[in-house]
Design a protein that fits this description.
The complex is a heterodimer of chains A (about 110) and B (about 120).
Chain A (H helix, E strand, L loop, with lengths): L3 E4 L2 E4 L5 E7 L7 E6 L6 E5 L3 E2 L7 E6 L2 E6 L9 E6 L7 E2 L3 E5 L1
Parallel strand pairs in A: 2-11
Antiparallel strand pairs in A: 1-3, 3-8, 4-5, 4-9, 5-6, 7-8, 9-10, 9-11
Chain B lengths: L2 E5 L3 E2 L5 E8 L7 E7 L6 E7 L4 E3 L7 E6 L4 E6 L8 E9 L4 E5 L3 E5 L2
Parallel strand pairs in B: 2-11
Antiparallel strand pairs in B: 1-3, 3-8, 4-5, 4-9, 5-6, 7-8, 9-10, 9-11
Classes of the chains: A mainly beta (about 110), B mainly beta (about 120).
Amino acid sequence: DIQMTQSPSSLSASVGDRVTITCRASQSISSYLNWYQQKPGKAPKLLIYAASSLQSGVPSRFSGSGSGTDFTLTISSLQPEDFATYYCQQSYSTPSITFGQGTRLEIK
Amino acid sequence: QVQLQESGPGLVKPSETLSLTCTVSGGSISSYYWSWIRQPAGKGLEWIGRIYTSGSTNYNPSLKSRVTMSVDTSKNQFSLKLSSVTAADTAVYYCAREAGPFKWADYWGQGTLVTVSS
């Protein structure tokens, strides 16, 4: 299986901060990398697909980059509604689709 | 707007079979991949598998021996069966639509908690 490792596992930040979350794959996954946001008690929500494409309706303060094994999710200016848990997912290795362990973004 | 809704028993006994159905509304189930993903309380996401509207499937190798998925296009529904369940299968189960060449999950159900307990 391809292992997806996110860092950090948790992060404290303030409204207005620029935040970067990293996801590393244990082998190359090209651009088969998606990012999701999950709030407590809710289903995950797609933010970024194919490493850098912004899902329709998602604010432009979210952006993704990377290819191969190293990827980043950046929030340019944190808003109160952005405090949540973020997951990366590789969709390269069917049928062994895997998620990162999650990054919990908390208010400082 | 596509909407997905999971349904099924919230309590299953150990060694029995967990059965869930996902009903798709606001769009056709045809020509998409449909998946199941689960999340134990306080833990991360685990992809269970997917089914195409033709009936072809991909299952997570770690669950493959216990998983069966099916689709009923006439009802705009797809289903999950997980056999021989144990407490480790207790989780919130989500259904989702996978789209695009990279199969990202763009629509999700709200999730349903399934508890395995006698």
